[in-house]
Automatic annotation (TrEMBL):
<dbReference type="GO" id="GO:0004592">
    <property type="term" value="F:pantoate-beta-alanine ligase activity"/>
</dbReference>
<feature type="binding site">
    <location>
        <begin position="30"/>
        <end position="37"/>
    </location>
    <ligand>
        <name>ATP</name>
    </ligand>
</feature>
<comment type="pathway">
    <text>Cofactor biosynthesis; (R)-pantothenate biosynthesis; (R)-pantothenate from (R)-pantoate and beta-alanine: step 1/1.</text>
</comment>
<keyword id="KW-0963">Cytoplasm</keyword>
<keyword id="KW-0566">Pantothenate biosynthesis</keyword>
<comment type="subunit">
    <text>Homodimer.</text>
</comment>
<comment type="similarity">
    <text>Belongs to the pantothenate synthetase family.</text>
</comment>
<dbReference type="Pfam" id="PF02569">
    <property type="entry name" value="Pantoate_ligase"/>
</dbReference>
<dbReference type="GO" id="GO:0015940">
    <property type="term" value="P:pantothenate biosynthetic process"/>
</dbReference>
<feature type="active site" description="Proton donor">
    <location>
        <position position="37"/>
    </location>
</feature>
<keyword id="KW-0547">Nucleotide-binding</keyword>
<comment type="function">
    <text>Catalyzes the condensation of pantoate with beta-alanine in an ATP-dependent reaction via a pantoyl-adenylate intermediate.</text>
</comment>
<feature type="binding site">
    <location>
        <position position="61"/>
    </location>
    <ligand>
        <name>(R)-pantoate</name>
    </ligand>
</feature>
<feature type="binding site">
    <location>
        <position position="153"/>
    </location>
    <ligand>
        <name>(R)-pantoate</name>
    </ligand>
</feature>
<dbReference type="GO" id="GO:0005829">
    <property type="term" value="C:cytosol"/>
</dbReference>
<keyword id="KW-0436">Ligase</keyword>
<keyword id="KW-0067">ATP-binding</keyword>
Length: 284
């Protein structure tokens, strides 16, 4: 496995692969890798000749400086994990390599970045759009892989690829979960043992909400069920929404006619102590 900190040698390596007609799969990450990331790598490896994993804690997508500072950084452990799967190259630049100058470009994804995560993390998706565009331009992958856990991010990146004509295929890989249902996330590393136990409330609430909505409860009634579960565990609920999975329009009921994609998705966010977690689940 090749490890690159700089753009120029990475490009030289990739250009040789492209001249040989090889397909390139990109798995963008911010490190602190877990089994969920590894499933993105193995999906890419099964579909491409060459798989590149980028590891970069992107400062422009953090609206909270404390969150950026506390984001787990475990590069040595990450590269050991990547050695064991079929990852061919790691790109782990410093911030000065990605942003030699303070960036002035901003993205506005319209409605896609005004709801849910966008409402609670202003500027977040602009930073994601920026770094993902840079990675797509540097690596020029034929395929790119993202986790379903960050569904809104996937919807935003799909729009970015469509509008800016990036010549690549996007894949969303289903969320990997712990045995008790907790969605795998690098942020889980910041939970103490007691917080780790109560964090299952996200998955349990989504399961209960799915049942409630399928039984005909309104979103409002379902949100009240979710809120009670969070209150019981003393976990703070930021939002619970039902949305169309493609255009992210917020739905007030589950009528298929309200969701042009035909696939409503439940999205949830909250804080366990200081640690912000998100999760989601398709209704069908
Ligand atoms: O999902 C993430 O880990 C990040 O948002 C991404 C896509 C790597 C961009 O920094």
């Amino acid at each position: 496995m090749e490890i690159f900190k700089q753009i120029a040698p990475l490009k030289a390596f990739l250009n040789a692969q492209k001249r040989a007609g090889k397909s390139i799969g990109l798995v963008p990450t911010m490190g602190a890798l877990h089994a969920g990331h590894l499933s993105l790598i193995t999906t890419s490896a099964a579909q491409n000749d060459v798989t590149v994993c980028s590891i970069f804690v992107n400062p422009t997508q953090f609206n909270n400086p404390g969150d950026l500072q506390k984001y787990p950084r475990t590069l040595d452990k990450d590269t050991l994990l990547l050695e064991k799967v079929e990852c061919d190259a790691v790109f782990c630049p410093d911030a000065s390599e990605m942003y030699p100058e303070r960036s002035i470009i901003k993205f506005d994804f319209g409605h896609l970045d005004k709801v849910m995560e966008g409402a609670f993390r202003p500027g977040h998706f602009s930073g994601v759009g920026l770094v993902v565009s840079k990675l797509f331009n540097i690596i020029q992958p034929t395929h790119a892989y993202f986790g379903q856990k960050d569904w809104q991010q996937f919807a935003v990146i799909r729009r970015l690829v469509d509008e800016l004509n990036f010549d690549l295929e996007l894949t969303s890989v289903p969320t990997s979960r712990e045995d008790d249902g907790l969605a795998m996330s690098s942020r889980n590393l910041r939970l103490n043992p007691e917080q780790r136990q109560v964090a299952t409330v996200f998955y349990e609430s989504l399961m209960a909400a799915k049942q409630a909505l399928q039984q005909g409860k309104t979103v409002q009634e379902t949100r009240a069920i979710v809120q009670t579960k969070f209150d019981e565990r003393r976990v703070s609920l930021e939002y619970f929404e039902l949305a169309d999975s493609k255009n992210l329009n917020i739905l007030e009921n589950v009528k298929a006619s309200d969701a042009p994609s035909g696939q409503p998705i439940m999205c949830i966010a909250g804080f366990v102590g200081e640690v912000r977690l998100i999760d989601n689940m398709f209704l069908q």
